[in-house]
Design brief:
single chain, 246 residues, mainly alpha, three-stranded parallel β-sheet, 10 helices
């Protein structure tokens, strides 16, 4: 998007960018950029805080008043609310499975389904409250995403449920949907956990642990696409380091 801004400006359309990586903005030299000190994936700060998000947007739009000329790069002066850990927070979702353990596909699938049964009501609560969900990339219900995950981890990869895509590509989208469903469910509770706390909770669930195991399966595959997905698309580096896998 930063590079695209140059093309839009050349066509006479004023642009302003919100940047999460200051060095990139310094190198690309967009006409107008507001750098924000937030974590990747949250250019407006924490969710469910419209007043703060409005301040971020207004700060960026004010850069349009700078007009044409040399690149403008300004720093947003506030940290995102909730960036720190809430020591009093405890997850409200009672999980029946403490951690992933190697198992044959049917048993692993049953474990994941039992866990999702506990998580699903909270996911529905979030969807009903917000009227939206970020899950859906795989076009599969999350319960079926977990079945696909269990099959791959157990070495019994099924045929692709989407004839237009390889099975491992659908798997990648299914993993994204599982992550989205679990984290949206967690956000339906009370309290203000940091995103770090939410991530740690997820990667310690049976589903999160199964995705970590899936990474090893795909990295050991002879298929280049599977290797690439396992290497770059499943587990964030911060979690690999926390789990001692980096």
């Amino acid at each position: 998007m930063s590079a695209l801004a140059h093309y839009l400006e050349d066509e006479g359309m004023p642009t302003v960018s919100i940047s999460l990586i200051r060095l990139h903005s310094e190198k690309i030299r967009n006409p107008r950029t507001q750098w924000v000190p937030f974590e990747l994936g949250r250019p407006l700060g924490a969710p469910h805080d419209p007043e703060f998000q409005t301040r971020v947007l207004l700060g960026a739009l004010r850069l349009l008043e700078a007009g044409p000329g040399p690149a403008v790069l300004e720093d947003f002066p506030e940290d995102a609310p909730g960036a720190g850990r809430d020591s009093s927070w405890r997850p409200e979702i009672a999980l029946p499975v403490a951690a992933f353990a190697p198992a044959a596909p049917p048993l692993l699938a049953a474990r994941l389904q039992a866990e999702w049964k506990a998580v699903a009501p909270w996911y529905l609560r979030h969807s009903e409250a917000t009227g939206r969900t970020t899950a859906g990339a795989s076009r599969l219900p999350i319960a079926e995403c977990l079945e696909l995950l269990a099959a791959f981890v157990g070495g019994a990869a099924p045929a692709s449920p989407d004839p237009a895509l390889p099975a491992v590509q659908v798997l990648r989208y299914a993993v994204d949907d599982v992550k989205a469903g679990y984290l949206e469910a967690l956000s339906a509770g009370t309290g203000s956990p940091s995103s770090g706390q939410m991530q740690e909770w997820f990667w310690d669930t049976a589903a999160g642990s199964a995705i970590v195991a899936l990474r090893s399966v795909l990295l050991a595959s002879e298929d280049k696409r599977s290797q690439a997905i396992g290497r770059a698309c499943l587990v964030p580096r911060a979690q690999l380091e926390r789990l001692g896998l980096a």
